[in-house]
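Structural biology now treats backbone shape like a language. To illustrate, our science desk offers a sequence and the tokens encoding its fold:
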Amino acid sequence: MVLEAWSLLKSDLLSLDFVIVRLRMKLFNTNNVDIIITNCRQYADVKLPDILWSDRVNRFEKRFAECNNSFFLQNSASIR
């Protein structure tokens, strides 16, 4: 499944973030969201799903634009 090719709404991404933050809050037994977000990102290089998704979409679009395959180029012109 290629998640990068799907268009997700901002509310979908925020829902994913909420689930991940709550899971970490229970895992580390804390109620402080700032600890979870900043410390996990700073010390463990753990990113929230909305950041990961935007990075992957940018990488997907860059690779798609650089693709020299004529099949992809024909189909992308008809989609857009």
Summary: The CA atoms of residues 20 and 80 lie 34 Å apart.
